[in-house]
Amino acid sequence: MIRDSLIGASVPRIDAQAKVTGQTRYAADIRLPGMHYGKIVFSPHPRARILGISRDAAESRPGVLKVITASDLPGSNRYGYEVAHRPVLVGVGEETRYVGDAVAMVVAETEELAREAAAAIVVSYEVLAPLTTPRQAMAAGAHLIHPEAPGNFCFQREIRKGDPESGFRMAEVVAEETFVTPRQEQAFLETEAGVAYQDDSGVLHVISCLQDPYGVAEDIHLALGIARSQIHIKGSPVGGGFGGKLNTTIQVHLAAMACLAGVPVTLTLDREESFIFHAKRHPAEIRLRYGIGHDGTIHALEGEVIADAGPYCGRTPEVVGLLLSALVGPYRIPNVRIQAAGVYTNNLDSGAFRGFGAPQAAIARECMLDRLARKLSMDPLELRGRNFLRPGDQPASSMLGDSPVSIDLLVGRILEELGPKPGTPEGSTRRVGRSICFDMPVFDVGAIPVRGKSGVGATVEVHPDGGASVYAGGTELGQGISTVLAQMVAQQLGLPMEKIRVEMSDNWNSPRAGRTSASRLTFGLGNAVLKATATLLETLRARAATMLETSPEGLIFEDGVFRRTALPEGSLTFAEVAQACWDMGDNLRAEGWFRASEGRYMYGHTFMAAAADVEVDLLTGEVRILKLANVLDMGKMLNPVTAFGQLYGGAIQSLGYALMENMVTSEGLVRTPSFAEYMIPSAADIPESFAADAVETPYPTGPFGAKGIGEAALNCTTPTILNAISDALGVDVNSIPIGQEHILAAVREQSSRQVFAAS
User: Fold this and answer.
1) Share above pLDDT 70 across residues of the chain, in percent, rounded to a whole number
2) Domains plus CATH for the chain?
3) Local structure of residue 331 (DSSP, 8 states)
4) Window from 299-308, 605-614, 703-712 with minimum mean pLDDT
5) What's residue 446's pLDDT?
6) What separation in angstroms does the CA of 408 have from each of 392, 411, 441?
7) Which residues have a catalytic role annotated?
8) What is the structure's pLDDT at 454?
9) Does the model's pTM come out above 0.85?
10) Which of 666, 689, 679, 683 lies closest to 738 in space, CA to CA?
11) CB of 117 within 8 A of CB of 257?
12) In whole angstroms, what is the distance from residue 78 CA to residue 90 CA?
């Protein structure tokens, strides 16, 4: 009897029980003998020159082991992903660039003593005027946040296709709008935390919640001058990341504390420290101008993007580059010219956030398409349908490659999920609106260069008892990747899930796999794991053939059993063959390496549809989401329960982005420093009807036909909600979040216009 396939089955997550029972040890739970507590002193000013640092009062306090300033640090005191210009500590005579810049550190016997000593450090500042908007930073005569960046440009790029001028001359309707999107906090459950120590041989060990152990190791090497071979980075279980833990966060600071104090050190940021420290979603100003015919054909698109990079480069070139490319979306537009810039400011740091710029792009693009439809008195779905990409088309900003175009399947499925539009009772002050939006999310197929290196590796090892271990460089963030990898190996080796162990995020024990982002792990690591497993099966098959006195070609392997094809009564279990390989000294450890392209960026595409029915109260401004639905082309769905978890989670993050989330700053200072002021969706905000569905068009080069899906659900849910509100009110929404006060203001303005028109 052949067992049911594990691929496509809703296998429970292998880490679920430990997490729900409290057995999982997160970074802040780790305790080591002789462990001390660290504390970072942050600048209270977004821009200031440090005139002096007095640490005597802190150093003299009982229980304080070490006070550290920039002058104490070995190495360059600089690190960073694209550009290594971020200081570990800002030194005397240097300028702080935002309120998340660290200026000193303390190591003490207890967390309370460390906090008190940090407060006793006296830093003298010359407060300087900050640059707090990109327009201000780009202005002639503005001070340079980084002298090597003229005009304060972190990144500039243009995409161009066809002849935009000619396209606009063909257009019968031209429309232009500017959209403003805010800074968004990742709001992960677990703040930045970790432990670091040096062993007797001088090896530095850092255990921390992170998304890129290899990048962290490189940054420690760059900043502190520690040899790469002496740096061991181990990822702890991560209580949420969403891109906020993709860049190196506290790990360099931890490393410096442990090395200079000579003791194990633990450090956990409190929520307010976390809010100012890590990189947020880029705020952006996006201007789009469309030229379109009366029949709905889009002839031309012109636009400009200005994104706030904050004080350091980080991931801005990637994020803003993808934002730029995503503005075209899943549509045929023959003539395109769009410029984008990421601009340094003294605001909070900007960087990776789930979607990597695509959510900002989708807001501007999909809202514009609804407005074009209204100008043409055309159904918005019909307008989109006339411009959808078709098989054989190539978008203006990227290449589809071998990605199947599945938009027509999505349209049918999303309409099924929606059903009839709810009506509004006569005389009610409530209005109902509906919207359907589309996107073409990208996923990295395994070749994004990381500091000039590309590719994804994984190791699989078979044990003599018939079990197997997977060593993968990616990070389990709660997305379920460890479970999916275990499913793949169990399926290929014919083993039960409980026989598979998965170890991730360790720069010593697994091949380099780059960062955990860009919806890349299922595709990249999955392919690497399958390659490693295939190599092991060849070894096992050869040993089984010898034992059964036949050729490898004379064997079939099914349900964990090797059988002779000519003499079916001859068979060996997987465990028997594994033990024999072990006894004979066969290599039962294999590395798989997947590289989609040689040193080039290479993306795959999927397709997404989102729909919403909303109800808006004209008297209170309250928005109630009656129904939310999203449908994603997942390629082959490997594990439905984890896949749909991604869709539901992404949609709720999008809901928050649309209606409530905004990291407010003023003159570079945070005005929403905690969850008391920064609002995120709660259980009460989840729609009454919430559907997630999938179409499956297997991706030719994906593991079992799978695509990366981790970010896709986020991209077009926000504009869907915004367009549904516009449909209900008859007014446009150009900035988010749109709260009750904005709704009421729009209603008042509309009423005034109607009264004026009537008079």
Assistant:
1) 96
2) 27-130+186-277 (3.90.1170.50), 131-184+280-393 (3.30.365.10), 399-439+605-759 (3.30.365.10), 446-594 (3.30.365.10)
3) B
4) 703-712
5) 56
6) 14, 5, 16
7) 711
8) 62
9) yes
10) 679
11) no
12) 10
